[in-house]
Amino acid sequence: MKFLDEYRNQALAADLVSKINQAATKKWTIMEVCGGQTHTILQYGIDELLPANIHLVHGPGCPVCVTPLEQIDKAIAIASQPSTIFCSFGDMLRIPGSKYDLLEVKAMGHDVRTVLSPLECLTLAQANPDKLVVFFAVGFETTAPANAMAIWQANMLGLKNFFVLCSHVTVPPVVAAILQSPHNQVQAFIGPGHVCSVMGLKEYESLSRHFRVPIVVSGFEPLDLLEGILRAVIQLENGEAKVENQYARAVNNKGNDQAQTILQDVFVLADRAWRGIGTIPKSGYKLAHKYRQFDAEYHFAIDSLKAEEPAECIAGKILRGLAKPYECSAFAKTCTPEKPLGATMVSAEGTCAAYYKFAKFSLAQN
Amino acid sequence: MTTFQKSTLSPTNDLQVSCPLPFSRSNLIRLGHGSGGKLSADLIENIFLPALGNPILNQMDDAALLTLADHKLAFTCDSYVVNPIFFPGGNIGSLAVHGTVNDLAMFGAKPLWLSCAFILEEGLPIDDLQSIVASMRDACQQIGVQFVAGDTKVVNRGQADKIFISTSGIGVITGQQIPKANQAKPGDTVIVSGDLGLHGMAIMCAREEIELETEIESDSAPLHELVQSLLAATQSLHCLRDITRGGLASVTNELAVASGVGIELDECLIPIHPQVKAACELLGLDPLYVACEGRLLAIAEANDCETILEALRQNPLGQKAARIGRVVEDHKGRVVLRSQIGGKRILDKLSGEQLPRIC
């Protein structure tokens, strides 16, 4: 298929693999930031094709996985209220809260719906003036502009029954947090292609300079990732540390002006808790004061909930690249996609779910 | 206004009250249509018998009387709850006939008789029921099967979603070859009869109201003739499965487990309709897990591969038939996929359901 098969060409892939083999003389640890990139790596068996001295670790770039338990519990509390229509992207519905997940809330008879776009919620709100329509806004800088647009439009339309439970997070602060961690092993990053298509490269240039770390912003197809890995290895071998843009077909230096403008209008930076990692200052967005009437946390006044993670789950280590899923005692035993202990087992982009889906447990055990 | 005819009531006369039947005035299914009374009778006389009637069904007895000489029989049952009930390429009625017939066909059986139970939601437009029954009639005529038993129930609005259909089917096995799930052997070839994923994506696009440049049509079709031509072409047909819920990945996993063998698939050889591929990319789905309703998977001796492909390609439903892999000694009970770029991974059973990716 056009624009897809070109990036999945076997001969070109073999050529890149052999170039990585030649370039890599030492042992290197590289983290791909995005969950989508992790998914491609496992789906196409890229990790199996790489030489043994290239160690890939999987980053925190799955928005579903890093949404803290307290926030899920808040979503469940709001969704359980009568006359609420609670809307979310599909993956969020299966994330276990402290007691149950949103799908179970739906099964109990509450109105919980999957939407493909936040703008659908505006139509819903208009069609159901006697209901309160709440959208669970999660995601990185990629999903944030569309969600900001929904809030902006709701304001223009004068909607009084549309609310957003905002749980947006941003990539650069968590990359910095990983690099500052005393246990950090990551030597180079495959940067988040789609996030950079919105935000541009500037923030990554400061990260790269400050921490002296190579960052190759890459796409999501197999050849994108192989090329990104090759460029990262070459930088590491040469002792360089700069930002390279492998994904030039989607990313430019400045990013998307219009998207950045609406983000700045609707949101302000806020401290955010990351599931399994902890609170990182100014690592996410909340609604700006002038849009406060759309903020579900403000409207529903849900008390801050105290939630405890299952002790067995090592999602935090996995999200920081310190452990592989099969090193967890619960993996594929008490924790499966049908009955996940932690969020990394839920989303298709979660590292544990990807390892489970592509059956890495048996390869590791055999 | 309801009017009562003047009647001459006497102890010996039946009550001759004529209340205009709501049937003629309302186009919606009501609870009375499942009462076993007049409305039920109307439904049978006006909708079901004209479309599906035959000498056996027309007897209207509590059970169908079937006669067969000394034959092996295949017997199956299934139920249909698809949403939406009408979709590009078919509807719940044609799907119910095809699905039941295909289950019989996969056993090498010639499908003969079907039964059908309708569970209708109060408020279903009778026109919709009529269209569904008409497409069941057309499917039966095309295949040469008869509905010989049926039942209708109506439930309150909200207690079912428009219409559910439950079927069973009987077929007769005339040949010696009975393909079974546990007969795959190392060295065998793995073949699919056409491109994958059309039914699942047609439903998904209709349900989510996703508009693509060209509409994806369901592949729902009866496969009994395709199977008969396969059985005529080769003596070495070991396994046969229609690729339905869970798609190719689930079917190959079931066969690998049942036969205690490994299966190796080559992603480059697996035919996937370009529209399905595009829609899957858009929604973040894996086409190998998407359902078909008119495709089969055959496992047979490798020597017969070309003969089988030729036989399949003679039939319009098998034109895109392709060899997609082989059966191996290694990794017993598991399916390994050689990816488009040459990496290998285990193709596992589906966990839960496929959900759209969020970024």
Unreliable segments of chain B (pLDDT under 50, ≥5 consecutive)? 1-25, 355-359
How would you classify the quaternary structure? heterodimer
Class inferred from helices and paired strands of chain B:
alpha+beta
Summing up helix and strand content along with how strands pair, one would put the structural category of chain A as: alpha/beta
Distance between termini of chain B?
60 Å
Biggest β-sheet of chain B, characterized? 7 strands, mixed
**What is the overall shape of chain A?**
globular
**Class of the largest domain in chain B, according to the CATH hierarchy?**
Alpha Beta
Tell me what portion of residues of chain B adopts beta-strand conformation: 15-25%
Specify the CATH architecture of the largest domain in chain A: 3-Layer(aba) Sandwich
Widest sheet: strand ordering of chain A: 4-3-5-6-11-10
Rounded to an integer in angstroms, the radius of gyration calculated over CA atoms of chain A is 21 Å
H/E series of chain A: HEHHEHHEHEHEHEHEHHEHEHEEHHHH
Mean of pLDDT of chain A = 91
Number of helices of chain B: 9
- Total separate domains of chain A: 3
Remind me, CATH topology of the largest domain in chain B? Phosphoribosyl-aminoimidazole Synthetase, Chain A, domain 2
**Rg from alpha-carbon coordinates of chain B:** 24 Å
Q: How many DSSP-defined strands of chain B?
A: 13
Determine the CATH superfamily of the largest domain in chain B.
PurM-like C-terminal domain
Distinctive features:
heterodimer; A: 366 residues; alpha/beta; Rossmann fold; 3 domains; five-stranded parallel sheet; 17 helices; 11 strands; globular; disordered C terminus; B: 359 residues; alpha+beta; 60s Ribosomal Protein L30, Chain: A; Phosphoribosyl-aminoimidazole Synthetase, Chain A, domain 2; 2 domains; seven-stranded mixed sheet; four-stranded mixed sheet; 9 helices; 13 strands; disordered N terminus
